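Sample pair:
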Amino acid sequence: MPYAFQLPTTSVLSYPTFLECNTHPSLTFTASIQRSVLRDALKRHKRLDVPAQVANLSLIFSAFNEYLPYLFALDSGLSGHQVGFEEVDVILRKEIEVEWRSCLSASLPGREAPRVRGEGLDYELCFALNSLASAYTISARAQLHSLYSSSTPTAEQRTAVITAATKYLLTANSIHGYIVVRTSEIIIPPTAIDIQSTTQSALASLSLAEATLLAVLKDDPYPALVAQDRNSNDKEWMFKAPDLPKVRAHLFARLCLAAAEHVGRSHALLSGSAGASGKGVNESIIRHTKDLRRTCRAKACRFFGIDAELGGKMGDAIAWLNGGKKELGFKVEADGGSKMTKFAKFKKDFTERREDKKIEKGGEWGSDAGRFEEARVIEMLEKKWNKFNDTINTQLVPSSDLLISGMPSGREIHTPKRYIPPSLDEDTLEKIRAPLDDDDVRTLVEDSDDSGGEEERSRGLPPGSFPGSSSTGEESYY
């Protein structure tokens, strides 16, 4: 499952204070207005609960789509490049200073990470694009959550959901790849972990791995069967047997191994950036990449087992399932049985029930990166195949270590695409050639003065004082 990213908030930024455009005088003012809309949307989004945040994503995308063309126009003007077929001359008055909240940096439990101050338009551009990529990943999570709803989706609905989620993840991958190129040319503050080149490379590999897994999930009937079996509201089993079509097991196994390679690269980059930055990356995303790599390799073992079972090698198939359990972190005895104490079984069942509750409530579900879901699929196949092997076709079960050591390399299915920055159209460029009216400038100034968040308003107040009280002591009661 995709990681549950959080969208950051940002400070006030008035472009006319730092930039000036002679050819299009309204460009800096209009860009500031669109950025104020985006900043307000991010603030409101943060205050909502998780289900309401999913419904609010359309407003976030709308704010980004309105702001980014102006941001790239300012970037092109500073770089001396054309916007469309027009020359845009942007002059730097003084260095831009802006703050963005780092959502991936480690922080104390119960406290969010502080905002990180940076300089330059590239800093603003990279953080805005990273927030957009996080919004696409959150949208992919929202799409996949419908697969675990109380009503079991049909095959057509399942395919449409997975296709939409894959599109979102590949878009996030292209954005992360674009940020990697941009950050290689500038100096990023060490505390801004979110937009470091190593972090962005890790996030690009992570999104590509999740998109590769969705290509397997689209034609994998077993997770849907397990989810349907655990759904108490599903009544389809009363009148219809589950459909288990034949799968391209060997191909799916190699796709899972390719996803595991991408996740392993992401885990190594995130762990390395945690040691180099001083403050570190949030432990939750490092744990997520570790669990996702386990899940990918366990899926590969399961598909190799299905391929062996289709070829009549039941002993090898059971050995592959044992190897899958080892990859997931569960102990396996020498005879192939699961070695689990009563306390360990109780802990596993309790964790699964807690994850089911998270799915029902729509909260922070998928924190195990699909690890327990894959364990349920392996247990279902293990019970079926062991019964068949013990009663009908008795074959020796070889060691799973030898099979795992001979696994082939992965196979790619998606090719990362280059991100194309949005650009202003001719009508918009024609409109911003004229300066803004005095009323629009006055509105922009009022929005900038009044757009300080609760942190800015409470800054400087004495502890325990009421809002609006003065900390200077000039207005004494006496």
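The mean pLDDT is 81.
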